[in-house]
Amino acid sequence: MNKVLYKTFSVVIWSLFTIITLFPIYWMILVSTRTPVQLYGKPNLYPTFLEKIHWKNYTRPFVDGVFGDYLMNSIIVATSNALLVTVLAIMATYALSRYKIAAAETIFFWTMTNRMAPPAAFMLPLFLLFTLVFKYGDSNLFDTKIGLILLYCVFNLPFAIWLLKGIFDGIPKDLDEAMIVDGANLFTIISKLIVPLAAPGIAVTALLSFLFAWNEYLLAATLTSVYARTIPTGLSEFVTTTGTEWGTMAAVAVVSMLPALIFLALVQKYIVSGLTFGAVKG
Amino acid sequence: MNSSKTAWLLLSPTIVILIIVGLLPFLYVLYVGFFNWMPLGKNKEMEFINFGYNYRELVFDKFFIDSVWRSIRFAIVTLALELTLGFLLALSLLSSFPLKAFFRSVHTLPLVIAPIVVGAIFKLFLVQGLGPIPFLAKELFGFKLNYMSSEAQAFWTIVVMDVWHWTPFVTLTLLAGLSALPQDPYESAKIDGANNFQIFIYITIPMLVPVLIVVIFIRMMDSLKIVDEVWMLTAGGPGYSTRFTGIHIWKEVFEKRTYGYGSAMSVLYLYITIVICWILYSVMVSRGKANEDE
User: What is the predicted ipTM?
Assistant: First the structure.
């Protein structure tokens, strides 16, 4: 009897929390399907019928407006960053895992500290470096996708190396040696042995790196102005929004949220260990 | 083949990138912090003042110091709420009940949503004249909810938003910690006739201390960093009520273009974060030692 009561109680509490989690998101999706007139007055919580969706909220920013470009920039930056981080992390982790390096611990620790620092403390020096110092002739890193792609490595590389280190350490060194005896070079060992064996971990690394680069706002906002703006910086253009723009703002937010929802299904198990950096066994 | 040379070759691209975009900005901000530099004001070029000038100004800068205290207060409040709520939820997830996997999946959802999008979600949800919450508050309780006109409401709105966004992190991390605890102490305690409350206070909590400290550590660091959500929701207002340090630096530096002073501010902000980090770390280490001694 007591157990049944406890189970009922748990289900009730968790249902409540599920509603609290989903309701604001549901409301945002609703807003994105409505015309300004429909949003006026008493909030209407009933779902919008498919044929009545006000698609203009989506087409106006993404097809007619500049948000299509922002979306493209976000896709390019996040994908390139994920690829770059994955390749570099595979190389670096292989070195840290297979060779004795005098300063390995120090290097490892130093890369970690990069991730802990508050980005707001680095926006000014990065802004100055990108505009005034890192330049060649008339071109500099400010407002370029390459600048953002390189920058996000600071946050993603330490995490990727940490995630892959555990996996690479688990692959027996005998396998490497057997391949060396057969005359394989380093590139063959990494591409034919390590990468296939560590494929799931590498996929998770790439997905989480993508997600971070996709979600990052503060540095993207300070280091771009026109040509390399990403979706989160576009969303912040609605800060001063009132009245008629709510639907558009909601539509942009829904689109920025999509990759997160898609990846949630794929990397759910790893999100917590990713956020704690494996400080907790789980 | 020289093996250590190969290793360094493999590591070099990573190290070069981290030096350029990680270490150089840090050194540069230390350097600029000693100068007077306002491109739009009277100091168009960098001008060296003396080593401590910007920092001396900063320590007496009421707005900056206030923003630091505001951030710390915010970090402590959200931490207390998230820890309590997350702990209770994690404990409930230890036993089985219908739909548990579904509830847990939904609970993970906020963690992957970008902070700026969370800000947008809450703006649409809470803004006067659109959101259902101010409407319901007025209809049901006659309470006027408008986070853009009341300083206290703005601060607590941000707190609620942060709790919504990050409690799942605390829940899932503590759940991982709880599931990994050894079962032997529980069995011996039960044999000795301890009740559930005693078991919780004398066995679960002490064994969970390392995990708790990791959670506290990470949540403190993240709360002190907060910018995106707040910027989207309140932009630091009304008044100064939600102007946390990150937002303060942003507004000061990019609106007034005070590069020298702004650099000093960034350094001090970094320094304060590191000090808090270090205090927590020493507590963690001494606690770990105390546990070993027992």
Answer: 0.88
